[in-house]
């Protein structure tokens, strides 16, 4: 049984840790600002070649895509590196004895750690929108939230599933990197999926990747119809339920295997 | 002096052996790493192809842009695959390295040598040599320039890293802070995704002491076969690297005294 008290405690520990090193906090604020300014200038130079839209994106929409992506990315946690460390050091045993789910523990402490930066990034986006008119509406924000939750849940479950491989192979960072590369490309992190030929785009609807980045981004920008949104929601939920269902038994099996090995 | 050099070379040999053994021990990880690199090569090609098709007057063909982007990856892969040293100081692990009878940064470099990255970089340089032939670059020129690019960029990057790590001795988190604020990683990633001539001038001026600036321009000039520019870029990068190395050594000696002064 999950005790929410434990996980709230992990959240508060994460939050405290994030503010412990003040200089890191400052660099955490500066980096997204510098990144956004450089990104804006690069794309402005590209659009100045004589384009009003590229891949069906105007310059402002492109900047907005990047900014929203930055916010979504803030919620993504590296489960593989963490779990590998827990298995290799034997700390996993402590969690299993205390009946604490190591993935939830990691996510809550991570969320605590990220809270300050998530708020900061959102503030940066708001300040930026004073200078560049961004295509965001209140309805877009309301619709975006459930898609963001699904995106984060999908990414976390998939990354946790990959992390489980640690008990067998010990080193899984390359597998995680392979997933990140594939995800970066197919989820639209490298380039909005509208740059892809239409045949590819229709296939992407059936895959889980775009629901982790591109789709919530498009929902917030109001660039998809309500029918597309509904279909997208359905597919995203199917994938999420599927991964959650297979995670349960695989997690139990992995823990058993780990305990059988002597921790 | 020669005894020292021989000792350092023997150390290098021993560590390379250890890392290679380690790499072979975790076979699946290595196989996945190589598969990942192949996957990355394929996906990058598609990414660039779609990008160039959407922006035809970007100034480079798909293959040229691909070559430019992969050259950055190839050179950076050589020396980026090890963990941050900043964390070794607050955790006290640095103390273990400080008492070894060898240059600390050299020892750390060997201890955490990213052998997979080096193997990957060497394989990618072969790939780039073949790719270069398709866009009219002499294969020997490609190999020589990658080789020199790796040497100059490693010296420059390591020296900046060495310098910022030394600041950590004055105040914890200061070295990491300075390195983070330099924004080297983010700018390198942008240089990988967009031709560097789209960068604003002020950013280019700022980047001119970072390896990404030299490697990106090296790629562009290699495509244009501008020999004079290539030699100039390599010489400036090397000179900067040596300058930062001596600066880092000075800073390291000075800050280490402070660190030892309060008991390590």
How would you describe this protein?
The complex is a heterodimer of chains A (263) and B (264). Chain A has 263 residues and is an all-alpha fold. Helix content of chain A is 76%, strand content 0%. Chain A is built from 12 helices and no strands. Chain A has helices at 4-18, 22-47, 59-74, 79-89, 92-97, 102-131, 138-164, 166-169, 173-186, 198-204, 214-221, 226-260. In chain A, helix 7 (138-164) packs antiparallel against helix 11 and helix 7 (138-164) runs parallel beside helix 12. The longest helix of chain A has 35 residues, at 226-260. The mean pLDDT of chain A is 87. Chain B is globular, with a radius of gyration of 20 Å. The longest helix of chain B is centred in the last third of the chain and has 35 residues, at 227-261. In chain B, helix 11 packs antiparallel against helix 12 (227-261). Chain B is built from 12 helices and no strands. Chains A and B meet through helix 2 and helix 9 of A and helix 2, helix 8 and helix 9 of B.
Sum up the structure in keywords.
heterodimer, A: 263 residues, mainly alpha, 12 helices, B: 264 residues, 79% helix
């Amino acid at each position: 049984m999950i005790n929410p008290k434990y996980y709230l405690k992990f959240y508060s520990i994460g939050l405290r840790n994030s503010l412990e090193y003040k200089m890191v906090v400052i660099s955490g604020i500066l980096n997204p600002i510098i990144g956004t300014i450089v990104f804006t200038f690069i794309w402005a130079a590209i659009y100045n070649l004589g384009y009003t839209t590229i891949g069906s994106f105007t310059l402002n929409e492109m900047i907005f895509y990047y900014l929203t992506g930055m916010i979504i990315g803030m919620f993504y946690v590296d489960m593989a590196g963490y779990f590998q460390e827990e298995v290799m050091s034997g700390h996993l045993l402590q969690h299993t004895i205390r009946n604490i789910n190591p993935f939830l523990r990691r996510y809550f402490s991570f969320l605590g750690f990220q809270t300050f930066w998530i708020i900061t990034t959102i503030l940066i986006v708001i300040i930026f929108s004073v200078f560049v008119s961004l295509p965001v509406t209140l309805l877009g924000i309301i619709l975006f939230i459930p898609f963001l939750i699904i995106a984060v849940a999908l990414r976390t479950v998939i990354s946790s599933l990959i992390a489980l491989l640690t008990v067998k192979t010990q080193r899984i960072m390359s597998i995680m990197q392979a997933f990140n590369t594939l995800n970066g490309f197919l989820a639209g992190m490298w380039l909005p999926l509208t740059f892809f030929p239409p045949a590819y785009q229709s296939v992407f609807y059936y895959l889980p990747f775009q629901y982790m980045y591109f789709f919530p981004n498009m929902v917030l920008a109001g660039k998809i119809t309500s029918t597309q949104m509904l279909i997208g929601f359905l597919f995203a939920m199917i994938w999420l339920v599927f991964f959650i269902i297979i995670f349960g038994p695989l997690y139990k099996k992995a823990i058993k295997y780990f305990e059988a090995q002597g921790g | 002096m020669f005894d020292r050099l021989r000792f350092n070379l023997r150390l290098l040999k021993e560590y390379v052996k250890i890392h290679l053994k380690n790499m072979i021990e975790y076979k699946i990880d290595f196989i996945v790493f190589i598969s990942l690199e192949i996957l990355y090569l394929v996906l990058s090609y598609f990414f660039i192809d779609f990008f160039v098709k959407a922006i035809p007057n970007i100034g480079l063909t798909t293959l040229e842009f691909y070559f430019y982007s992969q050259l950055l990856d190839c050179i950076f892969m050589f020396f980026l695959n090890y963990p941050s040293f900043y964390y070794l100081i607050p955790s006290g692990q640095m103390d273990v390295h400080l008492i070894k009878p060898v240059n600390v940064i050299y020892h750390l470099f060997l201890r955490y040598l990213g052998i997979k990255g080096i193997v990957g970089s060497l394989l990618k340089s072969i790939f780039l040599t073949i790719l270069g032939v398709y866009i009219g670059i002499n294969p020997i020129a490609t190999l020589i320039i990658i080789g020199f690019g790796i040497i100059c960029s490693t010296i420059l990057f390591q020296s900046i890293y060495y310098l910022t790590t030394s600041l950590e001795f004055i105040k914890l988190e200061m070295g990491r802070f300075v390195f983070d604020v330099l924004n080297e990683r983010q700018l390198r990633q942008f240089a990988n995704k967009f031709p560097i001539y789209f960068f604003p001038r002020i950013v280019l001026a700022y980047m001119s002491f970072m390896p990404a600036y030299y490697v990106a321009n090296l790629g562009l000039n290699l495509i244009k076969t501008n020999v004079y520019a290539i030699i100039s870029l390599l010489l400036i990068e090397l000179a900067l690297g040596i300058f930062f190395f001596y600066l880092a050594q000075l800073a390291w000696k000075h800050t280490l005294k402070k660190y030892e002064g309060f008991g390590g």
